[in-house]
């Protein structure tokens, strides 16, 4: 095949996919602010995304805080700067590790579940049946998931921040023999409101991305069971990549030159 033709075909496919995603995003956002609203579906997604994701997010956060404290001590002890461990742990968890790791964990759990559920509904023609029954599938299936994920991921990240900092506290006090009062004092001294709020804004953006990619890939899946599997994989991979890219962009926006 002509290499130029292959490059052109790839570019056109990419632009076409980007256009379809942009149109889907605009359609979903427009329906988020227009009635009717399906509150029962919304509450179901709130429980599924928020409550049932707490164990995996909590475990990830506590062990991340523990490992971060151990590794910081290993590095800082070479420069006699062990007193900075509390600051490193709280800033790393609230600014970066809490939102990013929670987003990746929820993407693996919720993004895949959304894509698989909607993909199964698509290939079994349940979405077409909703349209036949005069129910807008975007309103009924997509909007509750996007709104719930956007609202619940900041709540999960707030819990992850607390648990992650507590994990660093446990290791520092009971493993590295730090003074508990001094550790807590240093944590509060260097923690600013901006550090927490920036992580929560990131979490809201990550929640929107996770739900959007899960819904988009599942809603547009085709090809039977194999197509559902591909949609699930694409949802997790694209959401994870977009989370990392968005994290960099938002970090530059919040902390550029600070």
Description:
The chain is mostly helical and 258 residues long. The protein has one domain (45-255). It contains nine helices and no strands. Helix 1 (3-32) crosses helix 6, helix 3 (54-76) runs antiparallel to helix 4 and helix 4 (85-123) packs parallel to helix 8. The longest helix has 39 residues, at 85-123. It is elongated and about 65 Å long. It starts with a helix and ends with a helix. The mean pLDDT is 87.
Class by alpha and beta content: mainly alpha
**Percent of residues in beta strands?**
under 5%
Query: Topology as H/E string?
Result: HHHHHHHHH
Number of helices: 9
For the largest beta-sheet, the strand count, sense and barrel status come to: none
Number of domains: 1
Quick recap:
With 258 residues, this protein is mainly α. It has helices spanning 3-32, 39-51, 54-76, 85-123, 126-132, 137-174, 180-190, 193-219, 224-255.
List the helices and strands and how they pair.
Elements (H helix, E strand, L loop, with lengths): L2 H30 L6 H13 L2 H23 L8 H39 L2 H7 L4 H38 L5 H11 L2 H27 L4 H32 L3
Brief descriptors of the model:
elongated; 9 helices; mainly alpha; 258 residues
């Amino acid at each position: 095949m002509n290499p130029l033709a292959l490059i052109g075909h790839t570019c056109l496919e990419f632009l076409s996919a980007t256009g379809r995603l942009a149109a889907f995003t605009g359609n979903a956002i427009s329906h988020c602010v227009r009635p009717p609203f399906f509150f029962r579906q919304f509450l179901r997604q709130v429980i599924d995304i928020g409550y049932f994701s707490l164990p995996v997010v909590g475990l990830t956060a506590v062990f991340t805080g523990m490992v971060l404290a151990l590794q910081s001590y290993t590095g800082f002890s070479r420069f006699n700067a062990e007193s900075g461990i509390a600051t490193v742990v709280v800033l790393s968890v609230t600014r970066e590790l809490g939102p990013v790791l929670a987003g990746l964990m929820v993407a693996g759990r919720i993004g895949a579940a959304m894509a698989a559920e909607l993909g199964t509904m698509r290939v079994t023609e349940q979405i077409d049946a909703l349209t036949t029954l005069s129910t807008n599938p975007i309103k009924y299936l997509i909007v509750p998931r996007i709104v719930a994920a956007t609202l619940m991921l900041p709540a999960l990240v707030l819990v992850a921040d607390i648990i992650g900092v507590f994990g660093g506290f446990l290791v520092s006090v009971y493993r590295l023999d730090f003074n508990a009062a001094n550790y807590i004092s240093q944590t509060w001294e260097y923690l600013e409101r901006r550090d927490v709020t920036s992580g929560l804004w990131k979490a809201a953006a990550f929640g929107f991305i996770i739900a959007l990619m899960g819904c988009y890939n599942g809603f547009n899946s085709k090809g039977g069971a194999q197509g559902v599997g591909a949609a699930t994989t694409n949802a997790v991979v694209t959401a994870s990549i977009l989370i990392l890219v968005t994290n960099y962009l938002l970090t530059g926006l919040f902390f550029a030159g600070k």
